[in-house]
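Exercise: predict the fold of this chain.
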Amino acid sequence: MKKNLLVAFVSILATLLLLESGWRAYYFLRNRNAEPEGAFALYAAGESSVAGFSDMSFVSVLERLYSGGFAGRKLYVDNLARRGFVAYYHRTAVRRAISFRKRANPAALIIYTGHNEPPHNPAITGVQKLWLRFGEPLAAKSYFLSDMLYLLWERGILQVSAPEGHEWYELQLRHIIETARANGVQPFIATVASNMSGADPSLKLDDEGKFLSLARPGWELERKGRWLEARDYYKSMLEHYPAYAAHSHFRLGKCLEHMREYDQAREHYWLSADADPRLCLGKVDSIQTGIIRKLAAEYKIPLVDVVSAFEKNSLHGIMGSTLLGDGQHPNTDGVALLADVFSAALASGYNTPAAPPLGSAQGLKRLMKTDSDYDMKAHRGHLASLLRYSYLHKPWAEAAYEHAREHAAALKRMGAWDPLNDYYYFLLDHAPEMDRILGCRSGFPAGVLEDMSPPMEYDELSRLYSKIVSGEAPCSWPVSRCPSCMNI
């Protein structure tokens, strides 16, 4: 019996070693000559803010800025970003892309991620702590086990992360940094900008009616311009109803902005981000920002302080809709600023002249030689994101709703309005019908959000939409809130 167990153990071990060797050989053959000989390689890891929209990202802008070369070498760019994914994916993507690369080529890795992480919750279980402390680092040393665990995670079969908590986020950033350095790639880690004043926080409500009854008196005071009274009301609400802290801090920020108490307003916006349950369009909070700064100092790697740059270039030093199109994605001015900030950081890191700064969206458009087609795609991309945000946050997401209307109006001026855009407004303003057809409040189908393509439910929703517009079916929202009924 013991002999059979020993044989089985040795067989399993031999199989694992064989698989590990095969996995490493695969990455060696794939990556060894992926970069052009003598090039400077620039990699980027992150979410949709790095992936960009309509073939436009700050990474593609950097590629165009240094099309003539960087640090005396031809520039090779590999944008590893993927929309909607957490840092665990980005860590996997980085390892798969740069393992066993030729270290003779100088290389840099931009790390800009954090919006898609779950909210901070320090109360993780003992088993999760053991996994984070021992199991996960051990598995990370094996290419085969890492890929298998990732595959199981991606398929939803296995939970390999803490369900909530920034410990997991920090661990993934550490893996990314260490993987980069082990393969001769210089990491440039960046703080992450969010729309603090222009996008309402999400709320996890057990009783929506109770929340509305509590919040509406404050909203009414704001509507009347009674900012001091509204401020005191939200302070009281914050004290007695801490479950609504994200909303109360956000409204306090709004009141303090109107009272010209900008430093205090900024503080409350950050506190709102810290309390946000992140049901949609998560803002990077102060804990994550602190982790990023800590890791830059600990590993002695360049810190690209995007947050400071965005605050410096925002009205009253508060990140808002002047540089961000929705809760987290940069608008064209924001893309230009990101490109300028990273360009300066890379040039400083390699002691090479920086490209002339773009300065604004106009400089970006001149560089990229974009036309109205880009503007149209940009407006549509922001409209889709804002309407998804508004749908999941009704009825208190008025700020995002108004920004969506602005993008829609721009599309109409450009003659680029089409039935699909009307369709977005239908999805936004007829929530009960949306719930009935899709069966949940999980947001728009991916096809609508990513590719602006009709989703599977298009025919059924289109028929219902036509009935509502024609009056054959009732509209479930007041006319004052329904763009379709208002013929916008």
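Check your answer against the key: Strands lie at 40-46, 75-79, 107-112, 186-190, 303-304.
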